[in-house]
Amino acid sequence: MRNAVKIAVAIFFIGLSAFARAAGDEAKNHAFEVIDRNAEATAIVGDSLFYFGELGMQEHESAKFLKQTLEGIGFKVEVGGAGMPTNVWAQWGSGKPKIVIVTEIDALPEGSQDPLSFPRKPLVPGAPGHMEGHNTHGAVAVAAAYALKQTMERYKLPGTIALSFGPAEEQLISRPFLVRAGYFKDADAAILVHIGDNMRTTYGLRNYAAISAKFTFHGKTAHGAVAPWEGRDALDAVELMSVGYDKLREHLRPTSRGHRTITMGGIQPNIIPDLAQIWWYVRDASGPAAKENFDKLVNIGKGAALMTGTRMEMEFVASAWPQLANKVMAEAIQKNIDVVGLPKWSDEEVKFARDFQTSLGLKPVGLNTQALKFGATQQSYSSNDSGDVTWNVPTGTLDFSAGIPGVTPHNWQAAVGKAYSIAHKGELAGAKVLAGSILDLLSTPELIERVKAQFREDTRGVQYVSLMPPEAVPPVDMNRDMMERVRPEMRKHYINKTPRFQ
């Protein structure tokens, strides 16, 4: 009798689990239908952001557009939080779990390019542009958010959906300030969204920690021939700092990285410069290691100032921990990648990609049709400011297929196709995977608990401490002059359409 009861209970829970899966599948199918029927509106979002093409900290048109769009679909939107005028934070729903979609919308300097032209053809010469494709991020996030709201209302799913569009990702600026301001303190999970040329999620450490700072040396000018002994050469201090760090490299971990550019170096050779500046990026495989290297760099700068009789000022620019991708989250996202798959490309789209690849001297492979194999990531040497989020909230990653294979970002070529049907289809597929993954988190409490348990295991023995100095404030004037100079001409290319989600 006792065994019969156990069997009956087991059958009941198996049946309940099957019912839950069926209900979950029905909810996902509804979300996917919502995304499909709003393909045109989604494309307008991505294309509008493409033609805004705004640099970090100056995403004013983009922020205004996203605010209007998100409020139009029922989200409460805050612009300007954490001391950043173009920071966009949107939220809908109530209660737990709270899931945050984390992404960015900034462009890159001198990246302006006609998205359908293979030869170099800036829309506005010298203007910035989306030569990484961050414009597509907004489309994916908004489309998924709308589908989630519609589905949660229909199936009465509790929970809160938030969207974070952090300014100036390309300069590693915003997310440490957002974490410090407490935006993620009540989040249960987050998903980082980024463009790729394939569908991909992964787990482990994805990239490097980084600290960025400018060192300005103040000296005393003098005639370089008549009385050089009266001068205090600020450029000498910059050069000594550069040489000093080069001499230090032998004694740093093999994982360390340090690179710099001289942003001010004097006026002309016969005038001893009283002002010079060097801008450094210091990186390493962990946050504490990057901080240790940076502290050594600061001491080298102080020594350079002492040797030259100059005065050093340090201006913190940005910092980032490496991204920590959660394995349980990755497994959940991968299941949705397997369901959604890659877009079905037309013959015209494949030809477009192959012709463009040929024009660049690349192998004409066309577009990807199968998702990448799932597995642990290999830590790269690049950095992304969302790493700070991942050490405070369990985080998954989603790269979606809206780019052309073989075309590297941060080159004008990468702007080609980012306001074309290839990007549009990739945005829809990415939105489906994102929405499906979040629905799994909303409807499966045990999944959230396993995600949190994985997070506790991954962060065991590591205490997150911001790499920013306590007095750091966002550089809100960054890129202002450049944008003000080119924005009037860029406005002529705005598409001026309002996305209508239904």
Overview of this protein structure:
The protein has 502 residues and is of the alpha/beta class. The chain has 2 domains: 323 residues, Zn peptidases (Aminopeptidase, 3-Layer(aba) Sandwich); 112 residues, Alpha-Beta Plaits. The chain is built from 13 helices and 12 strands. The strands form 3 sheets. The protein has a 6-stranded mixed beta sheet with strand order 1-2-4-3-5-12, with helices on both faces. Strands 8-9-7-10 form a 4-stranded antiparallel beta sheet, with helices on both faces. Helix 2 runs antiparallel to helix 3 and helix 6 crosses helix 7. It is globular and about 85 Å long. About 3% of the residues have low confidence.
Essential attributes:
6-stranded mixed beta sheet, Alpha-Beta Plaits, 2 domains, 4-stranded antiparallel beta sheet, 12 strands, 502 residues, globular, 13 helices, 41% helix
